[in-house]
Specification:
Layout lengths: L2 H7 L5 E3 L10 E3 L4 H11 L4 E4 L27 H8 L10 E4 L14 H4 L1
Parallel strand pairs: 1-2, 3-4
């Protein structure tokens, strides 16, 4: 997506930057090499005070890289879990006033405390 497409369709455009930690600037997301990292950054920018991560396995489960399986052939999308986990470790220092819980049982992502979703609702 581009800024021009966002204007054409009346959408909010967020520029992605390859920086560690969280962006605190509206309209800018730090990428972290994966969409979950970006979603967490967006939640913080939108004012979330409690974030519950669901589906953040960060590992192969039942021979699948994603809940939907692998991407279609030709997309050549790699799941570099070790890199993603390293990137996520840069976030906690930026979370003043924000609680983040990993509600994904068996997740390889350990930089946020695990808590079952039903205990947070």
């Amino acid at each position: 997506m581009s800024d021009a497409a966002a204007r054409k369709y009346g959408l909010q455009y967020f520029r992605g930057l390859p920086h560690d930690g969280l962006s605190r600037e509206w309209g800018v997301l730090h990428q972290g090499c994966n969409s979950g990292y970006q979603a967490l950054n967006l939640a913080v920018l939108l004012g979330a005070k409690r974030i519950m991560l669901l589906g953040f396995d960060m590992r192969i489960v039942d021979e699948r890289r994603h809940f939907f399986g692998d991407h279609p052939k030709g997309m050549n999308v790699q799941s570099n879990y070790a890199q993603w986990i390293t990137k996520f470790k840069t976030i906690p220092p930026d979370l003043t006033g924000v609680e983040v819980f990993n509600c994904t049982k068996g997740s390889a992502l350990k930089c946020f405390p695990y808590k079952p979703l039903k205990k947070l609702l």
